[in-house]
From TrEMBL:
It comes from Paenibacillus flagellatus. This is HTH tetR-type domain-containing protein. Keywords: DNA-binding, Transcription, Transcription regulation. Residues 3-63 form the HTH tetR-type domain. It comes from the Bacteria. Pfam families: TetR_N. Coiled coil: none annotated. SUPFAM superfamilies: Homeodomain-like. PANTHER family: HTH-TYPE TRANSCRIPTIONAL REGULATOR RUTR, MYCOFACTOCIN BIOSYNTHESIS TRANSCRIPTIONAL REGULATOR MFTR-RELATED. One of its GO terms (molecular function) is DNA-binding transcription factor activity.
């Protein structure tokens, strides 16, 4: 029962964090939503900070595991197809999973008291993605560019596109993705080193 309640609290907290931000989220409001007294929250989490850190750590680990699984599952897929699928999958995960949405939001706009930790955690995700992109570049013989350079270029684009998800909309993200990657494929990845 205690674990179930803990998960309920985290689920409610994600909604509050997305709606009100870190500063605007109140433990009393979360407690009220899950039907417990604020004092009972402390049996599960010592503070709002502890609650938010646990949620963010779980979401980051989940997304790092997703990256590993996605790139393993699509190993050998031509890079262009792989990236197209990845862009769509990222949009879908962001749109349908509030924990993913929160991870990206906190990675781009971390609350002041947790800034260093959340940036470090987002960097773990980001560096893992970069590493997997390098491997994907190295395994596609049709792409004639240095895998490190190609991966860094695509990684930079993907981080920029992430901002479109956070501050724009999924539709705008897809439009920007299609425009950007079509230009990339027209020349940058097919030509000179």
């Amino acid at each position: 029962m205690s674990m179930n309640r803990r998960e309920e609290i985290k689920k409610a907290a994600v909604g509050h964090l997305l709606q009100y931000g870190y500063e605007g989220t109140k433990l009393a409001d979360i407690a009220d939503e899950v039907g417990i007294k604020k004092q009972s929250m402390y049996a599960h989490f010592a503070s709002k900070k502890e609650l938010v850190v646990e949620i963010h750590e779980e979401a980051t680990k989940q997304e790092i595991a997703f990256l590993t699984s996605f790139f393993d599952e699509h190993r050998g897929t031509p890079l262009r197809e792989l990236l197209d699928r990845f862009v769509v999958e990222t949009k879908d995960r962001y749109s349908n999973n509030r924990n993913v949405k929160l991870m990206f939001l906190m990675g781009f706009m971390p609350p002041e008291p947790l800034q260093e930790l959340f940036i470090t955690m987002f960097d773990l995700y980001s560096h893992h993605l970069l590493h997997l992109l390098e491997l994907a570049f190295a395994h596609d013989p049709t792409v004639r560019t240095n895998p490190k350079r190609g991966a860094l270029a695509v990684h930079t684009i993907l981080e920029g596109l992430s901002a479109k998800l956070i501050f724009g909309s999924p539709d705008y993200y897809m439009q920007a993705s299609e425009a950007t990657f079509s230009l990339l494929w027209e020349g940058l990845l097919r030509g000179d080193d």
